[in-house]
Amino acid sequence: MPIYSNCYPGCSNSANCLEYVKRNAERGNPASVINCIDEFASTNHMMNIGQVKGAVIDEEIRKKKPTVMAELGAYTGYSAVRFASLQREVAGNESHYYSFEYSPVFAARVREMVEIAGLTNQVTVYVGEFSEQYGVLRGKTVDFYFIDHEKTVYLSDLKLIISSETLAPGSIIAADNVVRPGAPDYLEFIENSPQFSTVRHTIKCGRDGKLLPDLSIATFLG
């Protein structure tokens, strides 16, 4: 099947991507789902973490072997499928991935994408603002947070994460797009906090391939 061309105004690339995956991916195969999304994204603008940045986070997941992961912002389900499948591989079937998505429309697509990938038992999707949903994580130690949602709430949600007592020494917080479009208040806080050790990865970003220190990886020190 051909990949959809760039959408006309008002058309949802997210919806078209899901349809493309339905037609072309092998059910129950997360790698096939990810490959299909990457194929679609090669000719259509998508707000996914993508292959290059995704590989950086993959390596962090392999090192950390997180039993509990949580993402803030799910969009079409690329990160949920990619990272949850790797989490299951390195941390076992008892591990779990919590996905928080503000939009009910996107959340429904994420659930469907997760089901196609065969990860329904691995991933739980919550709908609404993280500030209203994060209580489901109380009492758990979250080994790995991935933040990729509305940039203006990166800092406020980080502060919620800290106050929730879900972090333990060594917990990772990865945040995408900290330079473009940018979350300067988040960077100012986390890079100057004695509670974290932070590294920024310089990566080719966007269709222009500009090199930017756009992916932040912070380790909680306690």
Mean pLDDT: 90
Order of helices and strands: HHHEHEHEHEHEHHEE
Percent of residues in β-strands: 15-25%
| Named CATH architecture | 3-Layer(aba) Sandwich
The termini sit apart by: 51 Å
Family: Belongs to the class I-like SAM-binding methyltransferase superfamily. Cation-dependent O-methyltransferase family.
EC number: 2.1.1.6
Enzyme class: transferase
Keywords: Catecholamine metabolism, Methyltransferase, S-adenosyl-L-methionine, Transferase
List keywords for this structure.
disordered N terminus, Rossmann fold, single chain, seven-stranded mixed β-sheet, globular, 9 helices, 222 residues, 20% strand, alpha/beta, 7 strands
What's the layout of helices and strands?
Blueprint: H1 13-24, H2 30-41, H3 50-64, E1 68-72, H4 78-91, E2 96-101, H5 104-117, E3 123-127, H6 130-133, E4 144-147, H7 154-163, E5 172-175, H8 178-182, H9 184-192, E6 196-205, E7 210-220
Parallel strand pairs: 1-2, 1-4, 2-3, 4-5
Antiparallel strand pairs: 5-7, 6-7
Helix pairs in contact: 1-2, 1-5, 2-4, 2-5, 3-4, 7-9
Report on this model:
The chain has 222 residues and is of the alpha/beta class. The protein has one domain (48-220): 3-Layer(aba) Sandwich (Rossmann fold). 43% of the residues lie in helices and 20% in strands. A seven-stranded mixed β-sheet has the order 3-2-1-4-5-7-6, with helices on both faces. Helix 7 (154-163) links the parallel strand 4 and strand 5. Helix 1 packs across helix 2 (30-41) and helix 2 (30-41) packs antiparallel against helix 4 (78-91). The chain is globular and about 50 Å long. It comes from Phytophthora nicotianae (Potato buckeye rot agent). It holds the Pfam family Methyltransf_24. Belongs to the class I-like SAM-binding methyltransferase superfamily. Cation-dependent O-methyltransferase family.
